[in-house]
Write a structure and sequence with these properties.
With 93 residues, the chain is mainly alpha-helical. The protein is built from three helices and two strands; from the N terminus they run H-H-E-E-H. It has a domain of 54 residues. The protein has a two-stranded antiparallel ribbon.
Length: 93
């Protein structure tokens, strides 16, 4: 994988992570956090699709590896919701 391919992969993961955070309605941080959320979302989403027996949807080939766009967004949403539930302080009136 070349440096340019690595930067492209970071960009794609960042966009997927940012979309996942926007859908979940909870932002964990800036662009670096979005990149991490995108990668975790790709892992979680691919695992979920394998467990459910669903196909990979909209994959992008970067450096000879497939990056699942749709499953990355779905996994990012799931990850952000779980983190948001665990870290949000509950208010009592």
């Amino acid at each position: 994988m070349t440096f340019l391919e690595f930067l492209l992969l970071l960009l794609i993961a960042g966009v997927c992570g940012a979309i996942g955070q926007a859908i979940a309605g909870f932002s964990l941080g800036g662009i670096l956090v979005s990149i991490v959320v995108g990668f975790i979302g790709a892992l979680l989403g691919s695992w979920m699709s394998g467990q459910l027996g669903l196909p990979e949807l909209l994959t992008v080939q970067v450096g000879g590896r497939a990056f699942p766009i749709i499953w990355s967004i779905i996994g990012s949403v799931a990850f952000v919701i779980v983190v948001g539930l665990l870290t949000t302080k509950k208010r009592r009136h």
